[in-house]
Amino acid sequence: MKIEYIKRTRDYYRAQGFKQDYQWASNNQTPFQPLLKPLTDSVVTLVTTAVTEPDIPKPIRAAKSYSFASVPKAFETSELSWDKQTTHTRDRSSYFPMEILQDLAAEGTIGALAERYHFVPTEYSQSNTIEKDAPATVNACLQDAVDVAILIPL
Fold first, then answer.
1. CA 101 to CA 44: how far, in whole Å?
2. CB 121 within 8 A of CB 16
């Protein structure tokens, strides 16, 4: 079965009233930063688009950091665009592997799990993501001395 994600995305945004088709990001180069120290000494975090605070209206959401100690039992994902017919988000560990990272830290595979994880809202505007949310998330990771960020878009 072939799923035409680009066509589905265009149709989805048109149904929401957007007049201009979504412009897919295009990068001629992919930035890559090799680890500066072994993974066994690295602090790891998660960056997700899963909504931690659904009471904040979508138009005013912005990148925000949260303590791993207060991770919700379930994130709000129903408003996000993902294939809900062939998968689900009822098993938080399947898309937010906090417990696995804690186990890896305990066994010494990674240095540590950071104190905080980070939320980046899904945005129609790439400029908001590039100019506001990404820098805020990078700054939070730098504050937490994070060496590795695992990106989990939904």
1. 8
2. no
Task: Identify the pLDDT of residue 82.
Answer: 67
The predicted model scores a pTM of: 0.82
**What is the DSSP secondary-structure string of 62-112?**
--EEEEGGG--SS-B-TTS-S-TTT--SSSGGGT--HHHHHHHHHHTSSSE
Task: Say how far apart CA 138 and CA 111 lie, in whole Å.
Answer: 19
pLDDT at 141: 97
**Residue 57, pLDDT score:** 85
Task: Return d(Cα 29, Cα 41) in angstroms, integer.
Answer: 29
Give the pair of three-digit tokens for residue 14. 């048109």
Tokens for 116, please give them. Answer: 């905080």
Judged by DSSP in three states, 48 sits in strand
**Residue pair 126/120 in contact by the 8 Å Cβ criterion:** no
Residues sharing a CB contact under 8 Å with residue 36, sequence separation 6 or more, in sequence order: 147
pLDDT digits (tens, 9 = 90+) for 75-112: 888 877 667 777 788 889 988 999 999 999 999 999 99
Beta bridge partners of 65: 118
